[in-house]
Amino acid sequence: MFEKEKKLIEGMSLLTFPFLSKYNVFCAFTSRTGGYSKKPFDSLNLAYHVGEDRDLVRRNRQLVLKNNLNIKAEYIYSVRQVHGSNIVSIDKDIRHTDGAIPEDADCLMTCLKNKPVMVMGADCALILIADIGKRAVCAVHAGWKGTFNKILGKSLEVFCSRFDSKEKEIHIFFGPCIRGCCYNIDNRLADKFRNRFGEGKYLFDRGETPFLDIVELNMVQLRDFDIPEDNIYDSRICTGCDRKYYSYRREGLTGRHGAIAAIF
């Protein structure tokens, strides 16, 4: 199991992975604490699209950068997440305003220094990929639609091809998201998953209600790759249970925490 650290700086709680620093790689999952946002977005909302004052979101993003001094970046880069399977690669000529790239996608990747990439969620699975050999990183947003369309597997295929990655040097991190304990779905959607993926422990019933384990279903996609089991880390944090994280199911109108990866 990876060495991990819950870092608390000025009230900001980050889940980080100190062993990555010797490879000049940074991966972290934020919580909702320690920022400038007001209710119902309190307080470290990183999403521009939820209706909050844009300046507060900008200040929150800069706060995350300031408290991680190894990242000498001006912006954290994000896209318009649409629950799809499009992938964006960050290069020197990417167009953006305040780090917000005007493209619809649910995966960002880069091998450039000081270009942190981020996906955001408030229940959806947030997954970070790091190649410590080629020094490349990737951030994946996988809601049930993205998971159904195998965005993690597709992202890994593109990542390995683009950066000529060796699978034994890839590390994968599953951040806080809604878990099977809280993710009840309807029978129609359960049947849709069964028809595509077959029966499995990713789907189970409590009484007559089906529950979906979205992390387990994304783990299934990793079986097509030779990534060592010891290189896969799961935070095991449920956003439905833990109020230190945003949950759309629990709150409705709310903010978004982030999964951030960078090369420095």
* Secondary structure: number of strands: 15
Strand order of the largest sheet: 5-7-10-9-11-14
The percent range for strand residues is: 25-35%
User: What is the C-level CATH assignment?
Assistant: Alpha Beta
Radius of gyration: 17 Å
What is the mean pLDDT?
94
Number of domains: 1
Helix content: 10-25%
Bulk shape: globular
Write the topology of this structure.
Layout: E1 5-9, E2 12-16, E3 25-30, H1 54-66, E4 78-80, E5 87-89, E6 100-104, E7 107-110, E8 117-121, E9 125-131, E10 136-142, H2 144-148, H3 151-163, E11 170-174, H4 187-197, E12 203-206, E13 209-212, H5 214-221, E14 232-234, H6 248-251, E15 257-263
Parallel strand pairs: 4-6, 5-7, 11-14
Antiparallel strand pairs: 1-2, 2-3, 3-15, 7-10, 8-15, 9-10, 9-11, 12-13
Q: Can you give a write-up of this model?
A:
The two termini are 24 Å apart. It contains 6 helices and 15 strands. 20% of the residues lie in helices and 28% in strands. The strands form 4 sheets. A 6-stranded mixed beta sheet has the order 5-7-10-9-11-14. A 5-stranded antiparallel beta sheet has the order 1-2-3-15-8, with no helix packed on it. The chain has a two-stranded parallel sheet with strand order 4-6. The longest helix has 13 residues, at 54-66. It has helices spanning 54-66, 144-148, 151-163, 187-197, 214-221, 248-251, and strands at residues 5-9, 12-16, 25-30, 78-80, 87-89, 100-104, 107-110, 117-121, 125-131, 136-142, 170-174, 203-206, 209-212, 232-234, 257-263. It has 264 residues and is of the alpha+beta class. The chain has one domain (5-179, 233-263): 4-Layer Sandwich (CNF1/YfiH-like putative cysteine hydrolases), CATH 3.60.140.
